[in-house]
């Protein structure tokens, strides 16, 4: 079968380790012929990503909480690779003490931090890509969201609210980047045990509850999410604009 991402260069933000959804996306897209450029949060994460990625030119630091860091990263990518065909934004963060108990305990700072890194960062990244004229036409931006944006999932709290804002950002960005040929979509992924999930109080029960509610009794995998990401990065998906696509084995239905 022909590869659907031949000659495409795609930025993947958010690989922490081999369990990361971003890594599943990168692997699936590389299997479809794409060149992957990885951004990592800081030196500590660089060490971890370097164990998976040997081509050091394809590794660029980018802390999405810092506009200068995003500017530096995209400037470096532009110099090294020219234009790129897509960006996968698989980045989120909330303080551990915000991810448990009642939403009434949410702090102003904790709420703002979760919004900044997990939601605003998508706009910041799209803005910088636009300033650097980094994206081709057509191009694709994909972010990762979760069902906790729509339902009050136990302990997900400020992150659920940040995901709701992220999904709204997808729609506004899709509207404003559409004329430049850039489509923006989100994958609403089922629960998977990653570093980010272990920050949520009672994540074991969350993962079990989620698996029990899949249509076939088996949790979605990062490979399955990655394959949908590959489709969304490919020219096969140019009609999908501003959508939230569930890749959760039907958990949102049941
Ligand atoms: P992960 O811990 O592997 O990845 C999270 C990434 O966010 C890490 O690489 C981390 O370095 C990065 N990050 C955090 N703060 C950052 C910053 N300031 N600058 C740059 N990067 C930063 O976990 P994951 O589950 O693979 O998460 C990826 C995305 O998928 C997140 O948006 C998450 O909310 C979403 N998601 C996860 C699940 C799940 O069950 N694991 C389900 C649905 C959606």
From TrEMBL:
CDD domains: ENR_SDR. Pathway: Lipid metabolism. It holds the Pfam family adh_short_C2. One of its GO terms (molecular function) is enoyl-[acyl-carrier-protein] reductase (NADH) activity. Keywords: Fatty acid biosynthesis, Fatty acid metabolism, Lipid biosynthesis, Lipid metabolism, NAD, Oxidoreductase. It comes from the Bacteria. InterPro entries: Enoyl-ACP_Rdtase_NADH (IPR014358), NAD(P)-bd_dom_sf (IPR036291), SDR_fam (IPR002347). SUPFAM superfamilies: NAD(P)-binding Rossmann-fold domains (SSF51735). Its EC number is 1.3.1.9. The keyword Coiled coil does not apply. It catalyses: a 2,3-saturated acyl-[ACP] + NAD(+) = a (2E)-enoyl-[ACP] + NADH + H(+). Belongs to the short-chain dehydrogenases/reductases (SDR) family. FabI subfamily. This is Enoyl-[acyl-carrier-protein] reductase [NADH]. It comes from Limosilactobacillus oris F0423. The gene is fabI.
């Amino acid at each position: 079968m022909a590869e659907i991402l031949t000659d495409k260069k795609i930025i993947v933000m958010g690989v922490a380790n081999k369990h990361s959804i971003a890594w599943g996306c990168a692997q699936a897209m590389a299997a479809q012929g794409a060149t992957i450029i990885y951004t990592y949060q800081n030196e500590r994460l660089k060490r971890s990503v370097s164990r998976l990625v040997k081509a050091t030119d394809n590794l660029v630091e980018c802390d999405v909480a810092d506009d200068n860091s995003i500017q530096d990263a995209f400037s470096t990518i532009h110099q090294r690779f020219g234009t790129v065909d897509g960006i996968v934004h698989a980045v989120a963060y909330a303080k551990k003490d915000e991810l448990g108990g009642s939403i009434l305990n949410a702090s102003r700072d904790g709420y703002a931090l979760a919004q900044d890194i997990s939601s605003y960062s998508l706009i910041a990244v799209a803005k910088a890509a636009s300033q650097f004229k980094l994206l081709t036409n057509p191009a694709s931006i994909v972010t990762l969201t979760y069902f906790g944006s729509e339902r009050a999932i136990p302990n997900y709290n400020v992150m659920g609210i940040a995901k709701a804002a992220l999904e709204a950002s997808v729609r506004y960005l899709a509207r404003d980047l559409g004329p430049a040929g850039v489509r923006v979509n989100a994958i609403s992924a089922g629960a998977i045990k990653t570093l980010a999930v272990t920050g949520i109080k009672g994540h074991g029960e969350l993962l079990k509850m989620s698996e029990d509610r899949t249509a076939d009794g088996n949790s979605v995998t990062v490979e399955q999410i990655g394959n949908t990401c590959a489709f969304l990065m490919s020219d096969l998906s140019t009609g999908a604009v501003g959508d939230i696509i569930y890749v959760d084995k039907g958990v949102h239905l049941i």
